[in-house]
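ABC transporter substrate-binding protein, Bacillus salipaludis. C-alpha cells?
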Amino acid sequence: MSKTLKGLLVFILIAAFTIAGCSKPEEAKKETAEKQESTTNSAKDEVVTMAIISTWDTLNIYNTSGNYGNAVADQMFERLVYRDHDGKILPRLAQSWTMADDNKSMTFKLANNALWHDGEKLTADDIVFTSQAMTSAQVDNYYRSAFNVLAGTDDDGVAQDPKSVGVEAIDENTVKFTFKEPKDPDSILNAFLSFLYVLPKHILDTGDYASINKADFWKAPIGAGPFKYVKDVAGESLELEAFNDYYQGSPDFKTLVVRVVPAANLTAGLMNGDIDVVAMGSIPLSDWKTVKNAEGIEAASVDDYSYQYMLFNLSKNTFKDAKVRTAFDKAINKKLLVDKLMLGEGNIAVGPMPTYHPYYNDKLKANKYDSKEAKKLLQEAGFDFDKEYLMIVPQGNQVREQSALLIQQDLAAIGVKIKIETYDFPTLLSMLKEGKSDLGLLGGGSNIDPGESSVILKPGDSRNYSLLTDSKWYDIAAKGASLTNHDERKVVYDEYQQALVEDQPYIWLYHQNSLWAHSKRVSNVPIDDFVWFNFASWKWKVSK
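C-alpha cells:
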C-alpha cells in the first residue's frame, strides 16, 4: 500500500472518530457541567448560622486569649483527635495511635487523604512544623504550656532549638511524638493534642518563626478543616464555605456563618430562624422553659466540666494571706448562685473538678457558708475594710454578670466594699495581666485532664491571671502529670484538690450546665460534645 493511501486511510479513521465523539455536543456539554457542579457544589445550597455569645479576638488560634476562638478554629483547622462528652477519644486526623512500652513516645497514623483548602496534601511534616514553630520562643503561643510534655522543651513549653523538639515524621502519614518523661496516654490525648491545631508548612514556613503571628495568612487563613474562610467582620461574624474535598466527607450544606450574639438575643434568634445552632454560651435561664417547649427546636441541658471562679490579684499584699482568701470563700453563698441564678441547672464547685469528673476527690470538705466566721477571719488578718476593691467581669454571660452582684452583696454583708465594672473579654484579660483590678470573674475547663486547671496556677503562664508567684499548687499537679498509672495519679490529684480547698488561691464558684439548642432543620448535631469545643460540623444534616 502506498504512503499516500495509508495517509488517506488514517485521515478517514481520525475524522470518523472525531465525528462520532462530537455527534451530540449538547450531551457532552451537559455531562461536563454536571461533573463541574458535582465537584464545586456537592453541598446543599443552604446557610447554617452558629451563634456564640462572645467574640474571638483573632483568627490565629495560637495567639488568641480565650476559648471562643475554638468555635472558629474547629471549623477551619484540623486536630489529631477529638472527644465526646464523657472524655472518650475519637479519631479525627489521626486514624490510630500507639503508646510505646516505656510510655516515652506515641505514634500516630494519619488519614492519607487530608488536603489543605488550597489543594495541597496535609502530611506529617505539617505536624512537625507546627510543633516546632509553636515551641519557638519567637512565637507568641497562648497554649504553649500544653507543649511542655515534648522532649526538647522547658517547663513552659519553650524549645531553645525547635529543631530538637520531640516530634518526627516517620513517613508522609505517620508522626511520632517523644516525651521528656513517661506519660499517661490519656494525658497526652486530652491535654496536649486538644491544643494542636495543624498549620500549613508550605505556606507559613518562611524560615523565620517570628513572622508567623504577623503573617497576612491570618487575615484569610487556609486550613484543612470542614469549612474554608470566606470573609469576616471583626468581632461580629465569620462566613465559611463547605470544603468539598474534606477527607471525612463534604459538609451537607454550603455556608456556615459564625455570629456573635448577646445571650439575651439567643432565644429570639432561635425562634425566628436567625440562629440554627447555639454553640458557646448558654441560653438565658429565664428563657429556658420557652426554648424547651418550642416546636422546631431541640434543647439540651448538658453537664459541663467547666468551672467558674473568682480570682484575686495576688501581686497585692491584701490577698496573699490564705485567711483572707478563705474568708471570701466562706462569705459567698454559692448555693444561692446555683438555685437562684441557674434554677438548679448546675452544681456548687468545691474545686475545679465537678463531682462527675473521673478524678474528683469525693472526700473533699468544702468551706461552709458562714458570714460571721468570714468576718472574724478578715479581722484576724488585719484586712482593710475602708478600701473599695475593684472586681472586673467579662460581658456576655448573664449568669456570671448576675453572680457578681450577689457576690458583691455577700461581701458587703461582712463589711467588704466591692465596685463592679464590666468589659469585653479581650480588654478584661489585658487588664488582669496588667494587675489593674483587685478581683475578677472568669471560667475555665478546656479539657478533661485532671491537671487542666493547673495552668492558671503556674507562675509565669499566660493564663495565670491572678499573677501568683507561689508554685506549690502547680507542683502537686505537675507531679500527677508525671505519673503513668491511673491509681497513682488519682492519689496525687486528690492531694491537689485538697490543697486548693485549704489555701483557696482561687474561689471556685459553680459548674453551670450548658443550655444549648438547635433548630430541628439541622440534625445529627452532637450537642453534648460542645463542652470540649468539638462541633463535628461536617456531620450536621440540613433538611429543606
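The radius of gyration is 27 Å.
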